Amino acid sequence: MMLIRPRKLWMVVAAAVVVTSVGTGTVWSYLRTAHTQLGQSLRDAVPIAFELKRLDQMTSDLIPEIRANQKVAAQLDVEVEYLGREIEALRNFQKDAKSQMQKLRQALTQDRKSYEFGGRTFTRQEVEQDLERRLQQYDNTAVQLAAKEQLQEARRRTLEAATERIRQYQQQHDLLVQKAASLQGELKLAELAQETGNFEFDHSKLNEAKQLAQEVEKRIRTMQKLVAGQRQVPGEVPVEADTRSVADRFDEYFGRQAATK
């Protein structure tokens, strides 16, 4: 008799209590939800570039399948073509056989004991037997012809359906290729935007530089004021100061004639 360890026994009892408390359906719902979330988390963890490569590989894997179906369609096309040739040959054979039987039947309309065909003489019984043989062969060929025509029609319908499926499959493949290329471009743009958005600046250094520039400007202004003060002698009257109006100074600079114009 197999013994259950205390730890395993406790886990079994706990699981049984949970199932009994919330119900089997609820537990199954929890498990399905957890499985879905886990699967979604795993899919989200896969890089988009890897998924695009996987999509490209999947679309590439479709090409051999398309080629294989195209080969089958080509074989069907050849088979339909050869069936058409066989049918045409049988129809020509039936046409000639009917024409020959009509000649024999026309000859039998004459109540004679012998008939001449191709330089040879045949009795009425021989002509009747030959007509019967030809008629039986004509009937057998008609059955064969009908079977080949049905087979050709079936092959043609199969070929048309296969060709349409291949066309749709090829179209879906081309759309997937275009979609993959479009998604690849969108991913590149998103990565570029993400890289652009990751630019970071140290604002403290910027503020420090602004403050330094302000202090340098203050020192320059101070030096300018000191130089201006050193040029002017205290108590000296600025006799050379130009007190004329701006109109007079303009006339002197450009001439009165420029002002008139």
Q: How many extended strands? A: 2
- Give the distance, in angstroms, between the N- and C-terminal Cα atoms: 126 Å
How do the strands of the widest beta sheet line up side by side? 1-2
Count of separate DSSP helical elements: 7
CATH topology of the domain at 45-191: Helix Hairpins
Low-confidence stretches: none
Characterize the structure shown.
With 261 residues, the protein is mainly alpha-helical. The chain has a domain at 45-191: Helix Hairpins, CATH 1.10.287. The chain has helices at 6-22, 24-45, 48-108, 124-197, 203-231, 246-254, 256-260, and strands at 114-117, 120-123. A two-stranded antiparallel ribbon has the order 1-2. A hairpin with a 2-residue loop joins strand 1 (114-117) and strand 2 (120-123). The longest helix is centred in the middle third of the chain and has 74 residues, at 124-197. The chain is elongated and about 160 Å long. The model has no long low-confidence stretch (mean pLDDT 76).
